[in-house]
């Protein structure tokens, strides 16, 4: 609302770092919604002419306001077969946001599904076993693994099998 945007500008005018965020998650034409938000921002900027503002993405804004450094974030992924058991091993370079990465699997016949990893041992490491209880590695076309670091950096890996 205009009141919320005005409150944000008032905070900024009082020396507090402030983020105004908005989003639109459906598939309809959203240009009207964007224009409406910009109108509220311009209205507030006229009331608080000394407040400087800029457009940015959510990650950049959060890093600027919290003062956190945005460290590189990587997922190391490999598939190994040992003693007849095939497993996916995933290791994160830093703590992840959430208990485990997202795991998506595409089969050779074109089906997609997601699953949870087996367990996490040690910290920042996960495994997934390919067998008759999940799916056989011979039936898989691609595997997708994705996660975010605690500071909001993302890593997406797609493995062609």
Please characterize this protein's 3D structure.
Helices cover 24% and strands 30% of the residues. The protein has three helices and eight strands, in the order αααββββββββ. The protein has helices at 2-13, 31-47, 58-66; strands at 75-82, 85-92, 102-107, 112-114, 119-120, 125-130, 140-148, 154-160. The mean pLDDT is 92.
What's the helix and strand layout?
Layout: H1 2-13, H2 31-47, H3 58-66, E1 75-82, E2 85-92, E3 102-107, E4 112-114, E5 119-120, E6 125-130, E7 140-148, E8 154-160
Antiparallel strand pairs: 1-2, 2-6, 3-4, 3-7, 5-6, 7-8
Helix pairs in contact: 1-2
Can I get a quick summary?
With 161 residues, the protein is α+β, with helices and mostly antiparallel strands. The protein has helices at 2-13, 31-47, 58-66, and strands spanning 75-82, 85-92, 102-107, 112-114, 119-120, 125-130, 140-148, 154-160.
Order of helices and strands: HHHEEEEEEEE
Q: Whole-number radius of gyration?
A: 22 Å
As a percent range, the share of helical residues equals: 10-25%
Share in β-strands:
25-35%
Number of discrete helical segments: 3
Oligomerization state = single chain
Span from first to last CA? 49 Å
**Average pLDDT score:** 92
Overall 3D shape = elongated
The beta-strand count equals 8
Helix and strand composition category: alpha+beta
Sheet bearing the most strands, described? 4 strands, antiparallel
Strand order across the largest sheet? 1-2-6-5
Outline the low-pLDDT stretches: none
What features would you highlight for this structure?
161 residues, alpha+beta, four-stranded antiparallel β-sheet
């Amino acid at each position: 609302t205009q009141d919320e945007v005005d409150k944000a500008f008032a905070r900024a005018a009082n020396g507090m770092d402030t983020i105004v965020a908005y989003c639109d998650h459906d598939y309809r034409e959203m240009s009207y919604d964007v224009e409406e938000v910009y109108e509220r921002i311009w209205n507030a900027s006229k009331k608080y002419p000394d407040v400087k503002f800029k457009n940015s993405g959510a990650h950049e804004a959060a890093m600027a306001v919290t003062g956190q450094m945005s460290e590189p974030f990587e997922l190391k992924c490999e598939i190994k077969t040992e003693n007849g058991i095939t497993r996916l091993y995933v290791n994160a370079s830093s703590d992840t946001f959430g208990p485990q990465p997202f795991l998506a699997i595409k089969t050779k016949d074109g089906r997609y599904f997601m699953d949870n990893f087996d367990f996490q041992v040690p910290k920042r490491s996960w495994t997934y076993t390919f067998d008759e209880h999940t799916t056989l590695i011979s039936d898989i076309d691609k595997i997708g693994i994705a996660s975010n670091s605690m500071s909001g950096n993302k890593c997406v890996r797609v493995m062609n099998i």
